[in-house]
Design goal:
This protein is mostly helical and 230 residues long.
């Protein structure tokens, strides 16, 4: 579900908290209807900062992660982050995806690409920011995300039918290349002598716990005195 119309051109039209209440009522109604009809659906909410409205109320994935716990059936509702929508606002898309995953709310994901600060471009996946696409794919594969991977990207308007199919194949090919390379990076990290040296000879990249324990003991034993001139 994308609330593209749920926004304003001017805040003179309504209080924004009232708009959030109306959205909550609508999603609650859909959940109750879903239960009544025994459909077994889940709902994935998709954020976007603007376009077509000047300002959309649920602008980022984080907005929805704060909204979902206020619903009557939060277990039924998650998010559908889109690369372009987060990067329109100059945000780090991976961080939003990771937060959604950690909260158990990553139900779906839209893959494309975007130049920050522009209109919604829906570029071919990995075509604008290849490094960001790499870390995104690595994360999805590392955590074992098994939900839908949807390429919400648009071929150039000059393409014919065969060109559109080639474009779709290109998106999938890019994902698979990045998946392969992220696996190679993971294997290289496990074999790295530098990481073994840092971790005290083991293959784990976890820092030495003794260093943290020593710092914790020093901090716990320190006496903090309030400055009287404050």
């Amino acid at each position: 579900m994308w609330g593209g119309r749920e926004g304003v051109e001017t805040d003179a039209c309504r209080r924004p908290d009232e708009a959030v209440k109306r959205l909550r009522e609508a999603v609650n109604y859909l959940c109750e209807y879903n239960i009544d009809r025994k459909y077994g659906f889940k709902f994935a909410l998709e954020a976007k900062p603007n376009e077509p409205r000047a300002d959309i109320y649920m602008a980022t994935t984080g907005h929805y992660l704060g909204f979902i716990p206020t619903l009557e059936h939060p277990e039924m509702v998650g998010v559908n982050p889109e690369v372009a929508h987060e990067q329109m606002a100059g945000l780090n898309f991976l961080h939003g995806v990771a937060q959604a995953w950690e909260a158990g709310k990553l139900f779906h994901i839209d893959l494309n690409d975007q130049m920050p600060g522009r209109y919604d471009q829906d570029l071919r996946f990995g075509s604008a920011n290849f490094k960001a696409a790499f870390w995104l794919v690595k994360f999805l594969e590392d955590v074992g995300y098994d939900g839908p991977r949807h390429f919400d990207a648009h071929a150039y308007r000059t393409e014919d039918y065969c060109g559109v199919k080639d474009f779709a194949r290109g998106c999938m090919r890019t994902y698979l290349i990045l998946k392969r390379e992220s696996g190679a990076l993971e294997r290289g990290q496990r074999d790295s002598s530098l990481l073994r040296e840092i971790s005290g000879g083991s293959n784990s990249s976890s820092p030495d716990r003794a260093v943290f324990e020593e710092g914790r003991r020093c901090l716990a034993g320190h006496v903090f005195r309030q400055r009287r001139d404050l």
